[in-house]
C-alpha cells in the first residue's frame, strides 16, 4: 500500500509539472498559489480598467476635434 500511495503521489506531481510546462503559466489553478492567483486576477481587472480609460480618453479627444472642426467652419462662415 505504501508503494502504491507513493506512486500515486509521484504521478500527481508529474501531472502538475507537465500542466505547468505545457501552459507556460506559473499558476494554473488556485491550488498552485492562491495568493498569487488573487493578485493576478486583481491585476487583470486593473489592466482591463486602464484599457477602458484609454478608449474613453481617445473618444474624448475625438469629440474635442469634432467640436474644433465645427467651430472653425462656423468661424469661416462668419
Q: What does this protein structure show overall?
A:
This protein has about 80 residues and is mainly alpha-helical. It has a domain at about 35-78. It has two helices and no strands. It has helices at about 1-25, 35-75. The longest helix has about 45 residues, at about 35-75. The chain is rod-shaped and about 95 Å long. The protein starts with a helix and ends with a helix.
User: Roughly what percent helix?
Assistant: over 70%
Question: Low-confidence segments, ≥5 residues, pLDDT <50?
Answer: none
Strand percentage: under 5%
- Summarize model confidence as the mean pLDDT: 89
Rounded radius of gyration (Å): 27 Å
Biggest sheet: strands, sense, closure? none
- H/E topology pattern: HH
Head-to-tail CA distance between termini: 95 Å
How many distinct beta strands? 0
Treating each run of at least 4 consecutive H or I residues as one helix, how many helices?
A: 2
Structural class: mainly alpha
Please state the overall shape, judged from the principal axes of the Cα atoms: rod-shaped
